[in-house]
Amino acid sequence: MAGWWPALSRAARRHPWPTNVLLYAALFSSGDALQQRLRGVQADWRHTRRVATVVVTFHANFNYVWLGLLERALPGRAPRIVLAKVLCDQVVGAPIAVSAFYVGMSILQGKDDIFLDLKQKFWNTYMSGLMYWPFVQLTNFSLVPVQWRTAYAGLCSFLWAIFLCFSQQSGDGTFKSALPFFHTKGSSAIKGSPEK
């Protein structure tokens, strides 16, 4: 079991792009599977495959290239540099990523209006992301080695995917719509469990 970390580190050094992309995709897709479980619905593996497709074809690759561009444009870990990277990420990268997710999912689901989810949920999702991603990226840009930044973003995307996939399927893009649902589901499961 202890041999997996050195192997993963070697893979990240030798093949950083595919290693980061696959880690990101696996974690993000797992977030979709978990949100289905938390909602108490039957597992929809077709939906999870669609999420994985959007993540592999766009999100993970975009993040890898985007984080590399930010590092080349703003090299270093000085506080001003890190804050500039976070600002660029939230002003440029985040809107692209949110838009690509909603449009990509709508295309793969065969919706007539592929922009409907984007029009209805973009601002709420973007604003919700501003409560999460700046803190993630602050940590990413200041503490995480460059070769692991996409994988770290993928790890944090696991939590974001739970929210984002819920919003895409039945929410309005706000934490307010997602959190009470999960809280209610969890509370009823706890109340319904027999005591021993």
From TrEMBL:
It is found in: Membrane. The keyword Membrane applies. GO terms for cellular component: membrane; mitochondrion. Keywords: Membrane, Transmembrane, Transmembrane helix. Pfam families: Mpv17_PMP22. GO terms for biological process: mitochondrial ribosome assembly; negative regulation of hydrogen peroxide biosynthetic process; negative regulation of mitochondrial outer membrane permeabilization involved in apoptotic signaling pathway. InterPro entries: Mpv17_PMP22 (IPR007248). It is a multi-pass membrane protein. Belongs to the peroxisomal membrane protein PXMP2/4 family. This is MPV17 mitochondrial inner membrane protein like.
